[in-house]
Structures are given as C-alpha cells and as structure tokens.
Specification:
By secondary structure, the chain is α+β, with helices and mostly antiparallel strands. Among the domains are: 112 residues, no CATH class; 85 residues, Immunoglobulins (Immunoglobulin-like, Sandwich); 100 residues, Immunoglobulins (Immunoglobulin-like); 102 residues, Sandwich (Immunoglobulin-like); 162 residues; 124 residues; 45 residues, no CATH class. The strands form six sheets. Strands 2-9-8-4-5 form a five-stranded mixed β-sheet, with no helix packed on it. It has a five-stranded mixed β-sheet with strand order 12-18-17-14-15, with no helix packed on it. α8 packs antiparallel against α10. The radius of gyration is 68 Å and the shape is elongated. About 8% of the residues have low confidence.
C-alpha cells in the first residue's frame, strides 16, 4: 500500500512540476489528467483494493490444502504437519466411527505439534517500514510547498483539472479590482478602480467595451481608475495592456426609482365655504386648519414608497407605481417621500412643508390723510384684512381725554377678505374747537362664529386741532400763496404777450412764415395752455383758506360770504375747458396756417390773454379787499371777546377771595392778547395800502393807546394790591375795547359803502357818457349815410368818429379800472365795452377807406353793443345801490350817487348791541341788589341806567325801521313786532329802575328772537336768490321784445319807436326814460 501511495504521489509531483513550468496546452493537460487518473486507479486496485478484498474474504478463495502447503513452505518447522492434519480430518469424515478414533488421535498429535507456532507472526509488517521513508519525503515536500507557495501546487492542479479551459502563462503582473461590486444605479457615474500587482507595471492600461478602448487614469503608481458617465444599460468590459487582456467583467446597471409627479386633493373645512382644490406637483402648501389632503403619487421602477413625517414612517406598497395616502391636518406638517426599487435602490428624498393657517385675528391698518387745511373733517384711509371675512367695523372716539368712548358703526362688505375703507368724520359733530384734542381708533371684528368672533384694534391716534394762532397763520399763509399765484400768472402772461408782440413784428417783416416761426407760436400756445390749466390751484387754495376761516369764525359775515361765493364763481370760470381744447387743436394744426392766419391767431391770442389778465387782476384786487374786510371783522370779534374776558376778570378782581398774583397773571395774558390784536390792526392797515386804491381806514391809534394804557395800569394796580383801582381800569379797558370794536365795524362798513358810493356815482357818470356817445354815434351814422364819398363833409365825419373813439377810449379805461376794484361790475361788462371799441376801430378804418356802407354797419354794431353795455352797467349800478341799502348791511354813512338813501344797521349789529344791553342790565341788576354807599355810587348807577334806556330806545327805533323796510319789500315784517314790544317793556323797566329777574329773562328771550329773525332773514335771502336763478335765460344783449331800438321796417316807412311798459329798477328806469326822451325829442324835431 505504501508503495502504491509513493507511486501516485511521485507521479503527481512529476506531472505538477512539469505543468507548472511548461504551461502546457489543453491537449497535454488532458493527457496528464487521464494518465494520472488511470495510473492511480491501477495502482490502487492492484496494491490496495485487491489485498483488502482478500483480507475480507471477498472473491475466489484457496483450499485448505493449498493454504497448508503455502504455510508449510513459508515455515520449515511446520513443513507438512499442517497439511497432514487437514488430510487426517478429511479422512476421518469419510471413515466409520471405529476408525475415527485412531485418526482423531493422529489429529490431536499434530495439533499439539503445531500449537507452539503463532500464525500472526507469519506475516511481518515491519518489512514494509523500509518503504515508508520514501513516502514521507514527497509528502513533506508537498506540505512545505503548500505553506510557502501554494500556487506551486494549486495552479498546476487547477489547470490540469480544468483541462478544457484556456490558461495563459501569467505575466509579471496581475489585475485586482478594488471596487466592492460592479453595480451602479441608472444615470449615475461609476468609477472603476484597478490595482496592478507584480514586479513590473505596464505603461498604459485600457478598458475595452468590445468597440472602443479607453485609457485609464493612473492615480497613484499601480492604481488606475476610469469613470463611466451616466450609465443607462449593462456594460461588459475587459482590462487590456499591450500584451495582456483580462477576462470580461459585467458592470450591472440597476434601474433607478423616481417620483414622476403627484397630485394633492384639498378638501377644505365646510365652514370656509371653499370648493375642493386640486394641486399638482406642489408639495409646499398653505391651507386652513382642519383641511383633508389626499396624495396621489406616481413613481417609476418602485415597489414601495416611504411617507415620513413626525408621526413616523409609513410604507406604501403598489404594483402599478401609484401610491395613495390621506391625512387631515390641524397643525403645521412637514413630510418627506422617497420610493424604493425591487433592487433596494432608493430614489432621491423630496421634502415639503405644509403650513396650516389658524383662523387668525383680523388686521387693520390706518393711514391718516394729510390735513393741513382740512379741519372740519377727519379723513382716514384704512385697510382691513382677514382670512374669511368680517362682521363689523366700529369707530371709537373721545374728546379731551374723556373716560367714555363714543362708538360709531361703519359700513363695510362682509365678504371680501381684504378691503380698503375711507372714513370721513365731521369735527363739527363733536364741536371740536381750536387747540382741543381728539382721540380715536378703529375696531374690526371677523366672522368666525364657530371659534368665537375675534377683533383687532388700531392704535389710538390723536388729532390735535391747531390753536387759534396756528390757524390764523395758516389762513395768512394760504392768502399769501393765493396772491403769489395770481401775480406769477400775471407775470407769465405778460411775458407771453411780449413774445407775441415780438412775433408780430417778425411776421410783419416777412413774406411768409417759416418753420421756426410756427415752432415759436406752438411753444407759446403750449405755455399758455399750461398756465391756464394751473388756474385750478387758485380754487384749491381759496377753498382751503375759507375752510379754516369758517372754522375760526362761528358767526360768519353774510356779506363777506356772498362776496367770497362770487369770487369763487369767477375763479371757477377761469377753467375754460373749451378754450383749452381749442388751444390744443390750434397747436396740432399750426403747420397748416399761412402768414395771415398766423397773424390773426397771434392777435386773438393777445386779446384773449389781455382779457384773461384783466380778469386775474380784478380777482386779485377783490381778494385783497375781502382779505382786509375779513381781517377787520376778525379784529372786531376778538375785541368783543377780549372785552368780555376783561369784564369777567374785573368781577373776579372785586372778589377778595381770589388770589392777587393769579389775577395779575390773567391780566398780563389779556394785555398780551390785546398786543396781538394791535399787530393785526397794523397788518390790516398794511394790506389796505397794497390795494390799487386804498380804502379810507382809520386805525384809531389814540383809542388803541388808551386801551393799552388802561390795561397796563390795571395790571400795575393789581400787582400793588389796589383791587378797586385795578377794577376801575379794567372797566375802562373793557369799555375802550368795546368802543374800538364798534369803531372798527363802522369804519370798515363806512369805508366799503363810501367806496361803493363813489364807484356807483362814477359808474352812473359813465352810463350817462355812454348814452351820449351812443347818441353821437347814431347821429354820425345818419350823416355818413347821407354824405357822398366826394363830399368835403366826409372828412368832418371822419374827424368826429375819431373824437368819439378817443372819448370812448377814456370811458373804456375808466370802466376797466373800476371793474378791477368793484365786484358788481362783471368781466363780461368789460368785454362788451371792448366790442364797442373794436366796432368803432373798424368803422374808423372803413371810413378812412371811404366805405360808407361798411362804416355804417360797424357803427350799427357799436350802437347795439352800447345798448347792451348800458343795460349791463345799469344792472351793475342797481346791484351796487342795493348792496348799500340791503337789510343785512351795517350802519354808517356813505357817500353815494343816491344821497339820502342811508341804511339802518343790519340784524347782526342789532344783535350785538342788544347783547351789550344784556350785559349792562346784569351789572345794573347786581349793583341795585347790593347797593352802593355814597352819592357817587348813586350818581354812577343813575347814569348807567339812563345810558341803557337811551340805547334800548334807539335799538327799538332801528328795529321798527327794519320791520317797515321788510314790509316794503314784500317780507313778513310783522314777525319783528313781538321783539319791538318786548324792547319797549325793557325800556320802561330801565326808566323806572325795575331791573328784576323777569327783566333779565326777557332780555334773554329778546336775544333768542333776534337770532331766530336773523336766521329767517338769511334763509329768505337765499330763497330769493335761488328763485331768481331758476328757469331764467338772462339775455345780456338787446332785449328786443321789450325795447326795440330804431327798428326800420322799410325805406318807405317812417321810423317808429316801439315802447312797451316794462318793470325797471329805479336807476335803470331813470336811464331808460332819459334815453327815450332823447329819442322822442329827436323824432319830434325831425317831423
């Protein structure tokens, strides 16, 4: 057996060494394989399997006799003894029993002889040990080789066993893939890393995919790499050098899972009232709380999808790459999703955040509008915002830190989630006065009836009404801006007129107008249009100024208010949109005009601008006059108020309970207020001097000094502790201020009436001159018609027309100058006068060219315009006369064209005088109640009562005159009779020294009735004004149906003057009668 193993191992070593060094081809390795296999089987069968089978008695066996002979031959000592014993045994079996005994004895003898022998010793195993050393040696060699270099044994065996495969003899280097696996996700890059192991390293290493070879990058000596870009499919590749190509490798591309798109169905809570929404591919959402969301997610190459949130991870499975999940959200929710492929590849994780909106409180934002001149109204713009709508908006306000807030609901839409509101709140409703404070805020409520209505409030805002001094400064500032705007506009038009005159001179010297001329004219038109458009600023400034004035003056003067209305109407007329459109049209079509048309255009522009400038100058002068009247009216009112304060302080002075120091401080405050009034008087005087024709005003400086001195003495006496003396000076100061107030009122009224009277007289003279000129024109027109062109008298006619033109030029200039300071003379009067001038000028031009017919026509037009102008001037004169005689005008004499028509004091002055009576009655009543010691006290009381009685008698007389005047004008004068009767009772009580509480109460009742009468009078005047304006179509021209002027029926018919009875004003009636008388006289002379 040892020999057989030795033989097999020996052959194994021989074949292995041979194969290891020779790298035989497949055929030789096949022979080696089968040679070794057959040899091993033969040796094992012959030397191992057969002996073992014999030991196990397997197969054909030898006989006992043969065995005995073999043993006898191997053991000489036994010889044939064993054989004889076996033979005797066989003989004994064949013989009878008698002979068996002898044979058995023989067998037993032989057995005894063989007993000393051991047949186990017959086989010697030690003789085989000498072969064992030959077996151990190759085994040790193989074992050592396996330990030191296993490949020396394993590689040849591997190649022989795998004899069918092709094995190349290895080079000095090998390839080792450093990647853990050859798998990559679809679309990703894959970097292949290869290590070259061996004593020698190739210069270049390539990757071959069967079509192309790609050079690998050497990273670090024997490390090579190559990156496959965005792989989509599986890839076979091999490593290749110049002398070696590796086996092919498979780079497996795994399908990438992905989320292609998704949809979210949003089911809103029912109370919101919104329909279900469907959004696609938008995971970041803002939704109301309680909304239910259903995701429908579409994926690729995915067997499951993970939905991860704070609640945990949920795995969704699907066979068709569509995954669905539903959640109801009440809080903010963040989530991530990713899918997983069957190869356990994960897609990119997508994260989203969903914001859940709580039913929020409403929001309110307030923006106050700049209110520099808006005082009567609080203007506020606001924005309210809520998620689902509103229920109510309230306005809270309070005055002067009152504990209670007033609440006012405002109208809003409850549906819109965001809306603006505008709120206008009248400060007059809460009687907010100058210097007072007003607080307010807004409160908005939403419509969340489920969770409870929620509200939001704006910040508490404060509106500080400017004090009187600040408001007066605003008035002065607005007035200055208004005058500056007028003056700037006049300067601009003056500059344009100069440019027009220059353009006229340039065109006169040219045959045709060129492009530059038209460009300049176009620029002039543009500039004129811009200036006219800016006239709207005048109206704005006037409105802002008057709003402050109305706020300051609780008892506005009706006459001033009417004047302001007229001025505002005239300012409004400046905005002539038709003219602006015409200027725009002319500017566009100017290129089409020739030289003559351009000259006419320039002349019209010049005339229009002169008219416009006249209008501006007239308005500016009117405003200056109004400004002075307002200033003096304010001064008078402030003097009255200051006099009342002085009286109140006098009463406090006589009361010894009051602190002298505090009284002195109050007196100083009154002194300062009077100083401010004195400054205002100087300002009014300065404004008056700026008029084109200043009014005759007396600032009463002596009375001012006396008042100031009395107040100063009162203050000094107060500081010296002399209460009685201080009280006397205070009384003197109060009376002086009251007298100064009355004089200021009378002075202004007298000055205005004097001015109006002078202007009326001048206008009347102009009207007479106009009629004379009209008659002269008529006479001249007849002579022109009767005179031949060759008649020497024709030149006389020409000279007389020139004289008429010169005379009318003087009248026109006078009328124009008068119109600038007299509001009763409207601008259309001046325009009509200009038509007369133009007609006379044309007539003069035609008569110079001996065009008799055209001259007569022009003179006829001039006479018609003169007729119209006469009517207009008479109407203006009548208005001026009425303004001096109207019931609302204040007392005072006036120099006018109609002497003796002085007016009684107005209702407002009567009220003020009666209020002064009430104050005197209170003092007299208090004095009589307390009594005064000494004769001086009685004399002083008697004088005071006598003065009061005289004043009451005069007031009663004036009231009766007013009643009679109202009845004469068709009014209800009887309504004043009750007041007159009560005044008479007051007068009797004063004369009889019966000043009781009943007298005081009657005085209050008289004052109340006077105020009611004044209000009724104002309403009556307004109603008359409305009635006079309704349904009338006032013709400024010749009133043909009533007054037909020299209507000539035909040449064969005598001139007949149609006279119809018409209702005329006194002044106009006088003019009309004079005119008709002159016509009749001429008609009689003709006959």
């Amino acid at each position: 057996m040892i020999i057989s193993l030795l033989m097999i191992i020996s052959l194994f070593i021989i074949i292995g060494v041979f194969e290891y060094f020779l790298w035989t081809d497949s055929l030789v390795r096949t022979i080696f394989f089968y040679l070794f296999s057959v040899f091993s089987l033969v040796v094992l069968f012959r030397f191992v399997f057969i002996p073992i089978a014999k030991l196990l008695s397997l197969g054909k066996q030898i006989s006992y006799d043969q065995a005995a002979k073999i043993i006898g031959s191997h053991f000489p000592e036994i010889s044939d003894k064993l054989l004889n014993a076996i033979q005797l045994q066989s003989l004994a079996m064949e013989m009878d029993s008698k002979s068996v005994g002898l044979i058995s004895a023989g067998i037993e003898q032989k057995t005894i002889e063989l007993k000393p022998f051991s047949f186990r010793k017959a086989i010697s195993f030690k003789s085989n040990l000498k072969y064992l050393k030959w077996l151990v040696t190759p085994l040790i060699i193989i074992l050592i080789t396996l330990i030191i270099s296993p490949a020396f044994v394993t590689d040849p065996v591997n190649r022989i066993v795998n004899y069918k495969e092709k094995f190349s003899k290895p080079l000095p280097y090998t390839f080792k893939l450093l990647n853990d696996s050859l798998k990559v996700v679809q679309g990703d890059n894959f970097q292949l890393n290869v290590e070259v192991i061996g004593d020698e390293i190739p210069d270049q290493l390539y990757i071959s995919d069967g079509k192309y070879e790609y050079r690998m990058q050497s990273d670090n000596g024997n490390i090579y790499s190559y990156t496959f870009k965005k792989l989509k499919n599986d890839l076979y590749f091999a490593l290749k050098t110049e002398v070696l190509e590796s086996d092919k490798y498979l780079l497996k591309v795994l399908a990438r899972p992905a989320i292609s798109n998704f949809k979210i169905e949003i089911d809103y809570p029912g109370y919101i009232g919104k329909k279900t929404d469907l959004v696609e591919n938008t995971g970041d959402l803002i939704i109301p709380e309680g909304s239910s969301l259903k995701w429908q997610i579409f994926a690729r190459n995915s067997k499951e999808l993970n939905f991860i949130s704070k609640e945990g991870s949920e795995t969704l499975n699907s066979e068709n790459n569509v995954f669905e999940i539903t959640k109801t959200l009440v809080n903010n929710f963040t989530y991530s999703i990713y899918s997983k492929s069957p190869d356990n590849i994960f897609s990119d994780t997508i994260s989203y955040a969903i914001t859940t909106i709580k039913d929020a409180k409403p929001l309110i934002d307030i923006d106050n509008i700049e209110q520099e001149y808006l005082l009567k109204y609080l203007l506020v713009n606001g924005t309210i915002t809520d998620d689902y709508g509103f229920s109510n908006l309230f306005f809270y306000y309070r005055k002067d830190k009152s504990k209670e807030w007033n609440k006012l609901p405002l109208s809003i839409s409850t549906q819109y989630e965001k809306q603006n509101f505008n709120h206008s709140f009248s400060t007059e409703d809460i009687q907010l006065r100058a210097g007072e404070e007003f607080e307010y805020f807004y409160e908005i409520w939403d419509n969340d009836a489920v969770n409870g209505y929620k509200n939001a409030r704006s910040a508490v805002m404060t509106f500080n009404m400017p004090d009187k001094k600040d408001l007066e400064q605003k008035v002065d500032s607005a007035g200055s801006k208004l005058k500056d705007r007028y003056e700037n506009s006049l300067e601009s038009f003056e500059e344009i007129n100069k440019q027009i005159e220059q353009m006229q001179e340039n065109l006169f010297e040219k045959k045709e107008a060129d492009w530059s001329d038209k460009k300049k004219i176009k620029d002039l038109l543009k500039k004129e249009k811009e200036i006219r458009e800016s006239m709207s600023e005048l109206n704005d400034l006037m409105n802002k100024r008057e709003e402050i004035k109305e706020f300051l003056n609780e008892n506005p003067n009706p006459e001033l208010s009417e004047k302001l209305e007229r001025l505002e109407e005239q300012i409004e007329k400046l905005k002539d949109t038709d003219l602006l459109d015409k200027l725009e049209e002319l500017s566009k079509n100017i290129d089409e005009l020739n030289k003559d048309q351009l000259e006419n255009l320039l002349e019209n522009m010049k005339q229009n601008q002169e008219d416009f400038m006249d209008n501006l100058e007239q308005q500016l002068e009117f405003f200056k006059q109004i400004e002075i009247e307002q200033k003096l009216s304010e001064i008078s009112q402030e003097l009255d108020d200051l006099a009342k304060k002085q009286d109140e302080l006098k009463d406090q002075t006589t009361d010894k309970k009051n602190n002298v120091k505090e009284l002195a401080e109050k007196q100083e405050q009154l002194n300062d207020e009077f100083s401010e009034i004195q400054k205002k008087i100087k300002e009014a005087d300065s404004l008056n001097k700026n008029l084109s024709k200043p009014l005759d005003l007396d600032t009463e400086e002596k009375l001012q000094d006396e008042t100031s001195e009395a107040m100063q003495n009162a203050s000094e006496s107060m500081m010296s502790g002399k209460r009685n003396k201080s009280g006397m000076k205070q009384t003197q100061a109060s009376e002086s201020m009251q007298e100064l107030s009355d004089r200021m009122q009378q002075m202004m009224q007298s000055a205005m009436q004097s001015r109006t009277g002078e202007d009326a007289e001048q206008l009347g003279n102009m009207l007479d001159n106009l009629l004379d000129i009209s008659f002269d024109l008529e006479a001249l027109m007849k002579r022109v018609e009767e005179t031949s062109d060759n008649d020497p008298l024709f030149n006389d006619n020409m000279r007389e027309l020139k004289f008429i033109q010169d005379d009318y030029a003087i009248l026109h200039d006078s009328l124009k100058a008068l119109s600038k300071r007299q509001m009763m003379i409207q601008q259309f009067v001046v325009k009509e006068s200009e038509r007369i001038q133009n007609s006379i000028q044309k007539a003069l031009e035609n008569i110079q060219e001996r065009k008799s017919s055209a001259t007569s026509s022009n003179m006829q037009y001039a006479m018609m315009s003169a007729n119209n102008l006469a009517l207009m001037m008479d109407e203006s004169l009548d208005q001026m006369m009425q303004s001096m005689n109207m019931p609302g005008s204040k007392g005072g004499s006036a120099k006018c064209a109609n002497p003796g028509s002085g007016s009684s004091p107005g209702m407002q002055q009567l009220i003020q005088m009666q209020q002064g009576m009430g104050k005197g009655l209170k003092e007299a009543g208090g004095s009589s109640g307390k009594g005064k010691e000494g004769s001086k006290g009685k004399d002083g009381e008697s004088k005071a009562l006598a003065r009061l009685a005289a004043q009451q008698s005069e007031l009663r007389r004036q009231m009766r005159e007013m009643m009679e005047q109202m009845e004469g004008q068709g009014g209800n004068g009887k309504a004043l009779q009750k007041i007159i009767d009560q005044m008479e009772q007051q007068e009797n009580d004063i004369v009889n020294r019966r000043i009781t509480s009943e007298t005081i109460e009657r005085q209050k009742e008289i004052e109340t009735r006077l105020l009611q009468a004044e209000k009724a009078l104002i309403e009556r005047e307004k109603e008359k004004k409305r009635e006079s304006q309704e349904g009338q179509n006032i013709e400024r021209g010749n009133p043909t149906p009533d007054f037909k002027y020299n209507e000539v029926k035909n040449e064969n018919t005598n001139n007949v003057i149609q006279r119809h009875p018409i209702k005329l004003g006194s002044s106009y009636k006088r003019v009309s009668e004079k005119y008709l008388f002159e016509l009749k006289k001429k008609d009689e002379n003709k006959n």
